[in-house]
Amino acid sequence: MTFIVPTSAAEHIAKKLDADVLYLGENKDGKRYFPDGEIYTRILDFDKTDRVMILHSGQPKPNEGLIELENVLNILKDKKKELFFLYFPYGMQDNEFEKGETNVAQNLIKKYTMYYGVEKIYTIDAHFWGRNWAKNYPIENFSAVSLLKKKSEEKYGEMIYITPDIGAQRRTGIGGTKKKRKDSYTIEITSTEDLKKMVKGKNVGVVDDLVETGGTMCRAYDFCKDNGAKKVLALITHGVLPEGISRIKEKYDDLFLTNTINRPEANVDISGLVKVL
Description:
It is a single chain. This protein is an alpha/beta fold. The chain has 2 domains: about 1-140, Rossmann fold (3-Layer(aba) Sandwich); about 145-255, Rossmann fold, CATH 3.40.50.2020. The protein contains 8 helices and 11 strands. The strands form 3 sheets. A 5-stranded parallel beta sheet has the order 1-2-3-4-5. Strands 6-9-10-11 form a 4-stranded parallel beta sheet, sandwiched between helices. The termini are close together.
């Protein structure tokens, strides 16, 4: 039998699963943190199984979450294990873009599979998906796009969908605009004339894997409205930063956001994508 072992950031999904779950416990003070702020990790009923699926979300505390995840992996060092990332942390650092950088996403994957003996890694709309290096590791990526589309079409009927940049197009196969990033907060959007004609008079869903500051999505909204779109809806898998989510909610006609990260604005459930394999 395979048990689910959720880290703290993934418990909200584990509670929705029709599966056997081994939760993390508290220390002698009834807490998960020591007075100095260090995190405490203990798996309750540790001896119940020889095979586990570890469930983790890389937000809202990415660095602390990685420490807790490594503690779990060390506790389970002698178990057969797979690892399911609801949201993969450091997924945007998936290449050596500038001299002196490192590919953090690949480093994490390599460590989990080679050092900790994780047999397989599952992700949901991983930002690195489509990178050539990912083919070298036992990774399976699930997409939440169909869930987002279904939810939006139930409310708004027939729609067309676009993506805001080349990366999103690579990950989803959906066409769209292109962006040129000047810095972490400033971007420019360009498009073809055909795309401008396509959005006119239509309900448009702008599909992206994540929202941080919301700058890219807001530019995509402006593009759609400037070219005559009827309603413009945001379809996002990962709500990384609360300020970005708030910005999108204020700008767009509606927001469809999954619960890969435990955010109050999430209204699309992805628990059905998690399978105990």
